[in-house]
Backbone:
């Protein structure tokens, strides 16, 4: 990996990497090679995650001791699929690992395979013309879908694909919209968190001074399954504070009432107060908001109680961890076409650096 | 040969041809196809007519018709926040639209994503219903005021997916219906040396089939006044939910339609040609209607003996229609054999 990457060039590479939940090897390898020059060590993780450490000075400041350990977490995995069986006609029957909305699958291209090799397939559907008119408005059931990889018999398929193989969407990384302000791709949830933390790590490591505390960057596995690699990572790191960098479902589309929009693209990172997995540490949140305000970094409050993320596991680790989550608003999350704003990614990176700077060096502690 | 035809299909697919907008791609189409033909005749209906002559006087005329248009959408509304609403053109499948990617052919070609409602805004059971097309919003990433300067009501919208390869000889992407058959017709006409041609061949890449009108094909045929016609279009391939008696087998060769509206003598002659030339082929029964241009075409003028030769594809009218290159090549081979075969005229 060359060192002349930017957050966005890295995001493109990360987005195009095949790494559904449970098969994160390829993206873990990429991240390891990217961050190796910018940390003191990469710790072994039996859960296949990547945990990197930048050692701080650990100095005392004022009456309180600077926090010993800050965990910055993101997840490497993406929503995906698994091959359930192969038919005599060489077609694949698939289990979805993206939750229940199968409407975004019909007709889509996918990659099927593992870390090392994948083949292209298409989620085929019965053509509309042959569907009874009553059923034309019904979403295609997962059981009625199949993936065609281009062969006609089982034996041919088995040369390239096996039961238990993984799958992801195939989706180009597209820069679009006014002045190219948006990005569309697969797995931006949460490769954007990964790209931001790689970049943050590089800037901290190349900075003039060591941070005041030990920084742990955790790139976790299996978040999309809810079986979080962050849980074990948090146990290992034993942090005092943790910030989760995520993507959150934005509903800022025409006709949606403002209070139901959750978060809006272009208004900065969305800071969670509460979701289905966590009630966040309010003094820590207030402190982050204050940091953003003082340094004039755009951010917003996530306005809807929905979703969940690695914080759900991290905040319950050991004797508890003070947790916050900063998410990029992402439209059409859990589809092949995640849409995010470049300016939000920049704002989140800036806020992460500001928080590290202040938390590690300031006399003024979080209450 | 595989890669040549794949390239030709890819190039044809890249020319936007949403029904009613077939003329917009004329320049690109001409530079791609003209080298294989003697003459191009623009037709007011939007149909592109390419002629290759055999050089004999008073030669009979064979019409090879492949509709050039594709399903798509037209912009019907530009909303707050820079979203577009659309109406369908042709048989758009609402089951496949959430999160689909599109190209918007305005003053510039814009990229867009068809929105999918996030789960927290869905009501219980919503995920079982395909959203109404009128309720969908295309996300353009533009502010509404800027969008108004780039897009108008009526601007065509098509799918984004380019052509891609699967294992073996299969390809997938948007508009295999009917660019795969356009490619077969162009290739079939181009590979026969003039001195071996028994006919003057008119390839009509016709307009407005997907809108259910067949008006492009019938208007052009009226002017050409052919002695026989072969319509080439896609048909259903055997797949889950699609039985062998309503479709052809992918990789089994061109599918010849046995129908009350097609000319059985011509169809038989083509089947015989396949046997003689060792071209794999198959038949399907379309009793009353072939669902193609053939019905209208056979009734043009005093009537035109018409056969239907189809390429089987799966997932028709999705943005990843899937076809087998071998079928397209064998369809082209059958056309080449027909162009050499004077006996078709009797």
Residues:
């Amino acid at each position: 990996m060359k060192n002349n990457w930017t957050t966005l060039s890295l995001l493109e590479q990360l987005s195009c990497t095949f790494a559904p939940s449970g098969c994160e090897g390829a993206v873990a390898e990429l991240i390891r090679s990217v961050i190796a020059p910018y940390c003191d060590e990469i710790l072994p993780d039996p859960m296949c995650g990547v945990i990197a450490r930048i050692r701080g000075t650990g100095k005392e400041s004022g009456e309180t001791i600077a926090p010993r350990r800050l965990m910055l977490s993101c997840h490497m995995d993406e929503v995906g699929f698994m091959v359930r069986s192969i038919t005599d006609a060489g077609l694949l029957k698939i289990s979805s690992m993206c939750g229940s909305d199968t409407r975004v699958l019909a007709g889509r291209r996918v990659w099927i395979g593992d870390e090392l090799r994948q083949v292209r397939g298409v989620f085929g559907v019965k053509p509309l013309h042959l569907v009874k008119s009553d059923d034309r408005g019904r979403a295609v059931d997962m059981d009625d879908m199949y993936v065609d990889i281009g062969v006609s018999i089982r034996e041919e398929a088995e040369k390239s694909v096996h039961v238990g193989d993984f799958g992801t969407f195939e989706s180009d990384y597209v820069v679009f919209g006014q002045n190219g302000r948006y990005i569309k791709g697969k797995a931006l949830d949460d490769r954007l968190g990964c790209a931001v933390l790689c970049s943050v790590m590089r800037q901290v490591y190349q900075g003039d001074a060591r941070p005041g505390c030990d920084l742990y960057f955790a790139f976790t596995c299996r978040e999309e399954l809810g079986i979080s690699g962050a849980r074990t990572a948090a146990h290992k790191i034993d942090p005092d504070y943790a910030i989760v960098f995520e993507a959150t479902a934005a509903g800022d589309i025409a006709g949606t009432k403002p209070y139901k929009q959750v978060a809006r693209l272009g208004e900065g990172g969305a800071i969670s107060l509460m979701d289905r997995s966590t009630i966040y540490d309010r003094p820590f949140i207030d402190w982050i908001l204050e940091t953003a305000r003082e340094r004039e970094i755009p951010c917003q409050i996530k306005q809807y109680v929905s979703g969940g993320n690695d914080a759900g596991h991290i905040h319950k680790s050991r004797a508890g961890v003070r947790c916050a989550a900063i998410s990029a608003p992402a439209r059409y999350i859990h589809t092949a076409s995640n849409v995010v704003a470049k300016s939000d990614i920049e704002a989140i990176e800036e806020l992460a650096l500001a928080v590290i700077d202040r938390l590690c060096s300031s006399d003024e502690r979080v209450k | 040969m595989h890669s040549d035809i794949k390239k030709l299909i890819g190039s044809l697919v890249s020319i936007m041809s949403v029904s009613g907008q077939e003329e917009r791609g004329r320049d690109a189409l001409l530079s791609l196809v003209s080298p294989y033909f003697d003459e191009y005749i623009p037709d007011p209906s939007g149909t592109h007519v390419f002629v290759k002559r055999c050089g004999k006087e008073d030669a009979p005329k064979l019409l090879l018709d492949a509709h050039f248009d594709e399903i798509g959408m037209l912009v019907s509304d530009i909303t707050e926040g820079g979203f577009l609403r659309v109406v369908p053109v042709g048989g758009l499948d609402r089951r496949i639209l959430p999160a689909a990617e599109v190209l918007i052919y305005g003053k510039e070609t814009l990229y867009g994503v068809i929105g999918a409602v996030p789960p927290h805004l869905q009501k219980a059971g919503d995920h079982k219903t395909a959203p109404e097309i009128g309720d969908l919003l295309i996300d353009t990433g533009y502010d509404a005021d800027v969008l108004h300067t780039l897009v108008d009501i009526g601007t065509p919208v098509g799918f984004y997916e380019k052509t891609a390869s699967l294992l073996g000889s299969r390809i997938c992407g948007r508009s295999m219906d009917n660019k795969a058959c356009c490619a077969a017709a162009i290739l079939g006409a181009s590979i026969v040396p003039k001195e071996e041609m028994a006919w003057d061949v008119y390839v009509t890449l016709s307009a407005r089939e997907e809108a259910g009108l067949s008006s492009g094909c019938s208007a052009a045929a009226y002017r050409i006044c052919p002695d026989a016609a072969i319509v080439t279009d896609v048909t259903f391939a055997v797949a889950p939910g699609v039985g062998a008696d309503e479709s052809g087998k992918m990789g089994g060769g061109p599918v010849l339609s046995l129908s009350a509206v097609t000319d059985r003598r011509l169809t038989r002659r083509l089947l015989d040609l396949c046997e003689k030339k060792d071209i794999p082929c198959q038949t399907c029964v379309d009793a009353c209607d072939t669902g193609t241009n053939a019905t209208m075409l056979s009734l043009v003028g005093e009537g035109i003996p018409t056969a239907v030769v189809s390429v089987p594809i799966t997932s028709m009218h999705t943005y990843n229609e899937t076809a087998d290159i071998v079928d397209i090549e064998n369809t082209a081979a059958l056309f080449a054999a027909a162009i050499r075969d004077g006996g078709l005229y009797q």
In short: Chain B has a mean pLDDT of 95. Helices of chain B lie at 2-14, 26-33, 144-150, 176-190, 215-224, 264-276, 294-298, 325-340.
